[in-house]
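Supplementary Methods, section 5.1.

A reviewer requested that the exact input to the structure prediction be made available. We therefore reproduce it here, unchanged from the version used in the analyses.
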Amino acid sequence: MGEDAQYADMLREDVRLLSEANGTSMEEAFFARVSDTITGSGEIDDLEYFHHRGTQQSGIRVDGWGGDPRKSKQLSLLVVDHADDQGAPTLTGTELNSQFKRPLRFLKAALDEDWRNRLEETSPGFELADMIAARWSSVKKIRLLLLTDRKLSSRIDGRDMTEFMERPVSYSVWDVTRLERIENSSMGREDIVVDLDQHGGAIPVLPAHMPDSPYEAYLAALPGPVLASIYDRWEARLLEQNVRVFLQARGNVNKGIRKTIEEDPSMFFAYNNGITATAEAVEIEERAGIPVMTRLTNLQIVNGGQTSASIHAALRSGKDLSKTFVQMKLSIVDADKAEKIVPDISRYANSQNRIAAADFFSNHPFHVRMEEISRRLYAPAKEGNFTQSRWFYERARGQFADRRSSLTPAQRRKFDLEHPRAQLFTKTDLAKAEMTWRGRPELVSLGAQKNFAHFAHAIGKEWEKRDETFSEEWFRSAISKLIVFRKTERIVSDATGSWYTGGLRANTVCYAIAKLVHDVAQRGQSLDLNLVWNSQSLPEPLIDVLDQYGEAMHAHLLSPPAGGSNPTEWAKKKACVETAMKTEIEFRSDLSDMLIGTAERRQRTAEGRRDQRVVSGIQAQAAVAEIGSAEWLCLRKWVRSSGMRLTPSEDGILEAATRLRLRPLTEAQSVKAMAVMERARNQGYRSLDAGQIAN
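The structure derived from this sequence is encoded token-by-token as follows.
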């Protein structure tokens, strides 16, 4: 079986499992399975599932939308084509045309007030149509997406843009081939290939490296129209590794930058700091005796997101950019080193304004620790099952599939028993459950990527303050929260035909859990997550109360203030949370056996920290020994030459580390030594320096 067929089989299996676990349709399960892949690729910030199908005669259908047109100026609509058939034929051009006509028909109908008034106000179709009508004046572009588990015919290589009511319409197809390519790529995205001749012309460059140096870098002055054109094509994808934009979840237009563009464009180069960028490859040609840059692969603007967004905004508003130039510092980073080096470049480039949790990408030690715990910690066997299993934390995209694909058939069967696909979870899954439990359902309602940015900011600061908090105990609690979250998703879906009217499922889930956690805390208690971990399930009284809270919160979300936003937008507001928390609900089932006091919860956290300090000490001891005395000697010399400040205790530990053969460091000393090493690396020390200093 070829790799493409294996992926298609795996995708169908995933969708079936999701459908069964959550009690949703196969189409919604398919959407849930691939939406993170699409948003993670950078093509679109957020996707919401909103299914509406008109009569067969009307040909109207829409399955979701993405982003807020008031911010992005773009309306994104999507339609799902889910065959769930290994022998399904390829998607032809005729079918493609038919599929894309359906959301356009919905769009046309949504702008008809009479049609909207005929819809049931609590239906997802009405909510989406109402949102479109209210924000139509903000829409400057329309994007249509087709999500399909079939293959697109090889004879279709694209689709020209069209117009709808004087607005450009672009088309995007996410077929099984594209999904596989993205999920199996190391960065989880398609390459950005910038052909500068298509964006205003090649750019003269000044090499900023020695001919025999392993590091390749260039300086350039980018014409404003060129930068604006590149940004117009790729937008947020250019900022994926920009830590400040990552934490803010968007690139902002700066008023001061805009003022310079408008009033003194010829001085922009002098007044503005420019951009710091990286690329995995660059093509340099010599034209008229001058080196020029003609092509860039996987360009990333790691500092200068506001500059780029402001230049682009000026282009959109019709400003003259012909006199505007932007300085660029470009570093070329090999693809296999990009995950480690690019966030470092971004962090240092942004260091003039401290950013908590700046380097919160997949190589952040929080993710590394969660991955390490997930690979060794067995969960208790479920009732009626003799086999223990693990929860697999996918720190980087594709780890689970890569692990399976490297095994023999017999090993794969054993792996699947120990790591059920239903127990696979990602960074965004963890963020949704944790932020819900922290009482921030309005952030979870913003979408997976934006919620994760807030999660990153919070956890990153906590890691810096006290990393031992993130222990095995914390991991077990996190998994228990995830079990509660996923079970609540199923509870809401099962209430279809009862109190659940469709739509807003994700919002209902996070509000129901956050409200319950809040109400229990008001009693000075907490839900006993150890009970959930030990049984890997929820007791019936808790299921019943979650159903009760789901009904109450669903009704709350469907009742936004008069004249205010629609339910989806209402769910994203702090006022929605504050009102929800004031709602009085009496438990209709007894939860006393599932509650613990605050003191006991704090004691468990403290014990977890103590255990983690022991584990960290042992790991630090091993790391110190692996680094070796020669490297520690070089670090000590570098510290002295660089002027980095150490306490007398730290200096003594470094000196002891240079004589490991005589006596190994204690666990406590090893933790301090590794902290010095990390601090030195943050200030510019590299292992490469060791060899240079030794010579």
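The first strand starts at residue 48 and ends at 53. These observations are discussed further in the main text.
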